[in-house]
Amino acid sequence: MPVPGQETLAHGGNTSCVEVLRDDETALVLDAGTGIRALGLDLARRGTRRIHLFLTHLHLDHLEGLRFFAPLWDARVTLEIWGPRSQVFGLRERILRSFSPPLFPLDFRDVPARVSFHDLPAEPWRAEGISLFADLVLHPGPTLGFRLESGSSSVAYIPDHEPVLAGIEGRSRDWISGGAIADGADVLLHDAQYLEEEYDAKIGWGHSSVDAAVAYCRAVGAARLVLFHHEPDRSDAALESLHDRACALTGTDLPPPLLAREGMSIELG
Amino acid sequence: MQSQRQKQLVLILAREFVSNLSTPALIADASGCLVFYNEAAEAVLGKRFPEVGEVPLDDWLTEFAPRTTTGEPLPREQRPTHIALADRRASHLRYLVTSADGVERGIHVTSFPLFAHMDEFVGVVALFWRD
Lengths: 269, 131
Prior knowledge:
The structure holds two protein chains of two kinds. By secondary structure, chain A is of the alpha/beta class. Chain A has one domain: Ribonuclease Z/Hydroxyacylglutathione hydrolase-like (Metallo-beta-lactamase, Chain A, 4-Layer Sandwich). Chain A has helices at residues 36-46, 91-96, 179-182, 196-199, 210-220, 236-250, and strands at residues 18-20, 26-30, 50-54, 78-84, 114-120, 125-127, 130-136, 144-150, 153-158, 187-191, 224-228, 258-259. Chain A has a seven-stranded mixed β-sheet with strand order 6-7-8-9-10-11-12. In chain A, strands 1-2-3-4-5 form a five-stranded mixed β-sheet, covered by helices on one side. The relative contact order of chain A is 0.13. Helices cover 27% and strands 34% of the residues of chain B. A six-stranded antiparallel β-sheet of chain B has the order 3-2-1-6-5-4, sandwiched between helices. The interface between A and B is medium-sized, with 26 and 16 residues.
């Protein structure tokens, strides 16, 4: 859930949303947490008219910003929404549950943008100069991780993930949840919600401890870990402590992990 | 683009499940390739899984000379694992095998298909018990 306030001024209190910026007029957006509201205003300012939104899953913290995404309310915009297949209901039907009364005053039929819905994973998705590959990862309900490649650069995005449940250490990468997505990635944005001492009470909730995130980064051979999906109750100061813990675990053989914060920009080669 | 896929998530979860069972169990993927068996199965089969590796399940099972309870060769179409793989339905059978130690044993095998989605068959699990 979003946690704006004095305690989160440095790292931000919005929920998951990442833009992949390219030299192109099409925007690629990962997840529609509350961070997408500000992004939407920025895309409107930039005049972006074509947007691909990739949803890892439909838990509210990854979807609740969509209704306040400015491009959705612009008839000139084409928005393609990609998300995980479900056992029963289609992506459109599941998203629209949160997009109608009594949860929201307007109905999706009132949306002026041209919106279409697509199931993932399928074959790798490609657009000019970039490829996106999705696969299911370990988290309650159908949940995807994404890998994006451009040229020789790669970034893996697995914001909600509890790979330790199926094993990390001593496993070949093809037997690790999300192993193909994160395999050797230049940058890995990964769930690091808990401290190890908190994790015992949260086993099965679908998230990782910082220790597990570092172990996962090592196991998949990712170059740089970005600690992502912060625990809502964690203040800026507490996040810095978590970051210190991650740096201590990483040691000197890997670049120190980065602590995700609102507005952070990471340039890939 | 990343070409090597990870094992399907259902298989990863199945492996973790059978790894924690004391009942001998094996897993094959949708192509019929044996991808894992647990420590309890190693005790029955006489070999650790890494020594066997990923091999076609039907061919590998033939090494154990499966026979009916009357001693006739057991056609592969009647093996529970084959039925689960080919017909994608659960199956159970008691039959005879010759273990790695050369001893003839009666075993019960229950095999069932794994579907990630209703139209997405990803493999089979087989559980087996000695008499």
